[in-house]
């Protein structure tokens, strides 16, 4: 009987440790915004300006539209750096999603995008994009905002 209780406690501690190593944050939905971004201006910069103006510190972002050009990339896990590629093709935004958290005390949008042009698909982390037409759906998340900081294990700024 004693052995069974000790085993159950040990298993519980192991499972608890594994579950607790993942970070999670709980929020309630706050203000909800629909944005139509300005033609010819940078998507990311317009979003940053909006977040600052409305004092949004944490949010979920989704969007549709089209871009004139874009710079996207991926994180090379071995070299621990972003590889960027510029696309000067007018492309449809097939998917745009991301989140907003804090980095160095400011709202930081982290956005991934899928672009389509002439039956070709480009996808990755969005660094910049010149807007042709773009509509964003921003849901503010009410609660304590996550703060990004350097993560030794990945080389990324994570919350």
What does this structure look like?
- It is a single chain.
- With 159 residues, the chain is of the alpha+beta class.
- It has a single domain (26-158), classed as 60s Ribosomal Protein L30, Chain: A (2-Layer Sandwich).
- The protein contains 2 helices and 8 strands.
- Strands 1, 2, 3, 4, 5, 6, 7 and 8 form an 8-stranded mixed beta sheet that branches.
- The longest helix is centred in the N-terminal third of the chain and has 19 residues, at 2-20.
- The chain is globular, with a radius of gyration of 20 Å.
β-strand percent reads over 45%
Instruction: Tally the beta strands.
Output: 8
Number of helices: 2
Kindly, what is the distance between the CA atoms of the first and last residues, rounded to a whole number of angstroms? 43 Å
Mean pLDDT: 90
- The structural class is alpha+beta
Question: Low-confidence segments, ≥5 residues, pLDDT <50?
Answer: 1-18
Percentage of residues in helical conformation: 10-25%
- Integer count of domains: 1
The largest β sheet comes out as: 8 strands, mixed
Oligomer: single chain
Question: Can you summarize this structure?
Answer:
The protein has 159 residues and is an alpha+beta fold. The protein has helices at 2-20, 43-54; strands spanning 28-36, 59-76, 81-87, 91-103, 106-117, 120-142, 147-151, 156-158. The longest helix is centred in the first third of the chain and has 19 residues, at 2-20.
């Amino acid at each position: 009987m004693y052995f069974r209780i000790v085993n159950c406690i040990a298993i519980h501690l192991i499972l608890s440790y594994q579950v607790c190593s993942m970070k999670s944050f709980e929020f309630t939905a706050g203000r909800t915004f629909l944005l139509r971004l300005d033609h010819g201006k940078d998507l990311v910069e317009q979003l940053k300006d909006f977040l600052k103006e409305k004092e949004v510190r944490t949010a979920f972002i989704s969007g549709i539209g089209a871009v004139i050009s874009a710079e996207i990339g991926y994180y090379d896990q071995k070299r621990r750096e972003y590889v960027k590629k510029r696309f000067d093709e007018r492309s449809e935004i097939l998917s745009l999603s991301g989140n907003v958290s804090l980095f160095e005390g400011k709202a930081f949008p982290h956005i991934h995008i899928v672009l389509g042009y002439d039956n070709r698909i480009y996808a990755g982390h969005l660094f910049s994009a010149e807007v042709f037409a773009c509509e964003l759906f921003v849901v503010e998340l009410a609660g304590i905002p996550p703060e990004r900081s350097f993560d030794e294990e990945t080389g990324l700024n994570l919350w």
